[in-house]
Backbone:
């Protein structure tokens, strides 16, 4: 069931849609249909007026945001909306984690080592991969993704970072390329990704 908590700016759980989620979705819709000014307006609403339960992910928090235990990973400030999973709603047989985890039932989705090697050492994304227990007989060799490791962890769908990226893309499409590049590099620096 889709849970909407429209009466509260601060939902009791990130599994409830909120006004912040609505504004983020509006920014995405406006961006898609070419209404860049409205996309910027909606993204700014998320960036500047979201309640205190929402905040942007910083570089130091990237690994734990994705790879933490379910109780630590759920309802994090970066998350605007996530699909809630529990032992009763998702017993784990066909959970997303069973495809990505080396101990999962399917354990079938690895990333190529050359893709992993393409990340700069300073890029926090690199910490989301693991070479431990990767099959040594595969050709080409692969690495495991450290995201989605538990069948009971909620699946993140809407994030605060998307508001900034929507704003940056709308600025770029509006012809404000210098501002867009400046904001993109600032965003990359705070989240631990190499600036372009």
Residues:
């Amino acid at each position: 069931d889709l849970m909407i908590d429209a009466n509260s700016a601060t939902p009791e759980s990130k599994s409830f849609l909120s006004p912040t989620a609505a504004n983020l979705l509006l920014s995405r819709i406006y961006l898609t249909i070419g209404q860049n000014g409205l996309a910027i307006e909606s993204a700014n609403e998320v960036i500047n007026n979201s309640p205190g339960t929402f905040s942007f992910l910083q570089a130091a928090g990237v690994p734990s945001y994705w790879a933490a235990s379910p109780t630590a990973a759920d309802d994090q400030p970066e998350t605007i909306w996530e699909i809630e999973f529990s032992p009763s709603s998702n017993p784990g047989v066909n959970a997303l984690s069973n495809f990505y985890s080396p101990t999962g039932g399917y354990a079938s989705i690895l990333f190529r080592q050359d893709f992993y090697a393409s990340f700069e050492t300073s890029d926090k994304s690199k910490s989301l991969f693991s070479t431990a227990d990767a099959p040594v007989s595969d050709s080409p060799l692969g690495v495991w993704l450290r995201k989605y490791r538990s069948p009971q962890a909620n699946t993140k769908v809407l994030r605060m970072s998307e508001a900034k990226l929507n704003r940056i893309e709308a600025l770029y499409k509006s012809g404000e390329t210098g501002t867009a590049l400046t904001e993109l590099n600032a965003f990359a620096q705070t989240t631990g990704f190499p600036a372009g």
Q: What stands out?
A: The longest helix spans residues 177-191. The first strand starts at residue 3 and ends at 4.
